[in-house]
Amino acid sequence: MTTGVLLALTGPEEAELVSLLDAPDTGLQVVRRCADVPEVVAAGLAGLGSVAVISADLAGVDRPVLRRLAGAGVRTVVVAPAEDVARCRALGASVVTEAELGAREWAGVVGDLARSERPDEPAGPPPETPAEDASAPRGRLAVVWGPRGSPGRTTVAVNLAHELSGRARTLLVDADTEAPSVTQALGVLDETAGIAAAARLAGDGRLDADALRSLARRVGRGPRLLSGLTRADRWRELPAASLDVVWDGARALAEWSVVDVGAGIDDPTGGFAAGVAPRRHQATLSALAAADVVVVVGAAEPVGMHRLVMALQELTEAGVCVPHAQRIVVVNRVRGSAAGANPEQAVIESLARFAGVTDPLLVPDDRPAHDRAVLRGAVLAEVAPGSRSRAAVQELADRLLGSPVARRPGRGRRRGGRRTAAPAGPPAGAR
Fold it and tell me: For residue 306, which phi and psi values (nearest 5 degrees)?
């Protein structure tokens, strides 16, 4: 069996490497000598080879490109100067080898990598991977998601992040690629897309906790903010391969990261391109796949409840969340004018019957308080600390932290003898 090899090298050693790989009994054959990265990607997607040898100094060699090649079944060997090896390993290549070692050593690396694909031949040593520091603290990721129709995802996200920031180091991330609005909600005038800058650094293998900290600005006394895109049509700047690294950086930077994402999780791309082309909702899908907690937000009116039930079903069927992720269902803007004389009981019974959700968290409607918050670019804790909506968000923070704090009795907990949140119990939404 012969393994096809794609080459894209910039130095004079390419001709020597071709002769070494094409020698008899190597089981290797150079099938294409490519001039640039797009040609390598095109050849890989066409199935011409299963191993690609690429110079690190070629324009466009980044994490998303290597992920696309891996998705097409092409394993990569990146040839990099010694001082650039660490960065290139962060790109996700199968193997990174030093340019100074020469063509003969590169040929040996390619041979070992090819043999590792053949079960009937002994494999060489596995590629080196950076060791993880088991003692390093690892933060948690809470993704705020919900159906289309403006159920209040951003409102819940910014207020939740503020409540968490008083008890833990917290990062608020705007990863909504459909209608990013966290900066508007908080009155931040900076038009810089911090998450796009972080994704670029991650794609180039240069993102670490310090770099992420420099991109995340402090919002008053609340959490740090990694601002979102300035326009929805910039969604291609947030490839999933890069965002996977951003989430790791967020865990290293903060104890809790609250990520506001768009509603879409459907993939409009079909056929062959589904595995290699950019996906419209790749940012949301990447965040949900990395989440420790998924906060599903719906609105407490007939249309909003229908959308919430359908969204919970879609989320389960899509299988985008890891199995161990906790799911908390939040029903926002609960009020009698939209849900009847006993709105809390109506919402609880509807979710139990149609979605199997037995422990939703209900957020009472407090339109005057929210209007003041939006007008001032603030959160509920700043403009209406006694609001019943704020008390519900505090309870949500308690669920995430697992350690409720004592509050002043009677603040926003009951009205007319009815609870505004369901009794405590197991994680909500498990089906």
Answer: -60, -45
